[in-house]
TrEMBL record:
UniProt keyword list: Flavoprotein, Oxidoreductase
Protein name: FAD/FMN dependent oxidoreductase
Domain NADH:flavin oxidoreductase/NADH oxidase N-terminal: 2-149
Domain of life, source organism: Eukaryota
Native species: Hexamita inflata
Length: 185
């Protein structure tokens, strides 16, 4: 448990993993972290967790799921992620950080959420581009890995899965996980 361990193409200090779980410590509409958010993640880092998968961060307002969730949908949001990462690394310089990126699709909170029966190819391309833009922006941050989570609605659209999979393959050394991988044959 307390020995180094290799996951994907990087090593963690120990086998202790904190999985992505929503804390509910971000502002309701914008997803901006409150002080409690930083304090919580600092305490996790101080506990010497080897790999910390941050709670899901929505890549578009349209894809926000649940209330008081973390956002990463605008360039402005990067400063909050940077601050959280700096706090965690100050508390534990050996911690590995993974950012979980999400889009809730038809399960989103927004009034203009994707409606499966009305969604067009352009709607899905927009979702894919939101993931791609977010990943490109995060490359500049001090994050070790990324994880993409797609809502259940993407299972029905293998073309969009292939687009998202292409983002993963293009940068596979940066991703911890890509889920779900539901590609129809």
């Amino acid at each position: 448990m307390f020995t180094k361990y290799k996951i994907a193409n990087f090593e963690v200090e120990n086998r202790s993993v904190r999985s992505a779980t929503a804390t509910g410590t971000c502002t309701l509409q914008t997803g901006i972290p409150e002080q409690k958010f930083y304090e919580f993640y600092e305490s996790l880092a101080r506990g010497h967790v080897g790999l910390l998968i941050q709670e899901n961060a929505f890549v578009a307002i349209r894809g926000q799921h649940g209330s008081r969730r973390l956002g990463i949908h605008t360039d402005e949001m990067i400063q909050y992620h940077r601050k959280a990462n700096e706090i965690m690394r100050a508390a534990n310089d050996k911690i590995r950080i993974c950012c979980q990126l999400t889009h809730a699709g038809p399960n989103g909170n927004a009034n203009n959420k994707l409606q499966i029966n009305e969604a067009t190819a352009a709607d899905f391309e927009e979702v894919v581009q939101q993931f791609k833009i977010t990943v490109d922006t995060l490359e500049e941050q001090n994050i070790d890995k990324y994880e993409i989570q797609l809502s259940m609605f993407m299972r029905q659209f293998p073309t969009q899965q292939i687009f998202c999979r292409a983002i993963f393959l293009e940068r596979q050394n940066q991703f911890l996980q890509f889920q779900p991988l539901y590609l129809k044959k």
